[in-house]
Amino acid sequence: MLKWLCLAAVIAAAPVTAAQAALPPDAQNSDDLDAMIAFVHENPTVLRTLRVIDVENLSVHWGEDCTAYFGRNAKENAEPMPGPLPPLVFDHATCPID
Questions:
Q1: What is the pTM of this model?
Q2: Half-sphere exposure of residue 6, counting CA atoms within 13 Å on the CB side?
Q3: Which of 18, 56, 68, 81 meets the CB 3.0–4.6 Å disulfide criterion with 60?
């Protein structure tokens, strides 16, 4: 009987464990930083005049007053689910990009 109670407890806890699958903040920041650094490397003017990579605000600042903003593509008609966020992608910039 005790064996069945232990098995039932493990099965009952399984969905809770699966629901906690989001990336920890340091791993998410690392992925976001990688995406922003890739953007900088792909754009010579940005690389040459880079001032700040802002992970908190998901932006890259270069030149005199230029900023590139990044965001995440939301899945249409999808309910919020636990797990990692969608990848960070370039959204728009305040200045022309090469």
A1: 0.69
A2: 3
A3: 68
Cβ(63)–Cβ(95) below 8 Å: yes
70 and 41 Cβ atoms separated by less than 8 Å: no
Nearest to 98 by CA among 46, 41, 38, 36: 46
Convert 4-46 into a string of H (helix), E (strand) and C (coil): HHHHHHHHHHHHHHHHCCCCCHHHHHHHHHHHHHHHHHHCHHH
Cβ atoms of 23 and 88 within 8 Å: the answer is no
Q: In which element (H, E) is residue 47 found?
A: helix 44-48
Residue given tokens 């399984």 in the structure block? 14
Q: What is the pLDDT along the chain (98 residues), one digit of tens a residue?
A: 555 544 444 445 444 443 445 667 777 889 999 999 999 999 999 999 999 999 999 999 999 999 999 999 876 556 666 777 889 999 999 999 87
Identity of the amino acid at 66 = C
Closest CA to 68 of 89, 42, 90: 90
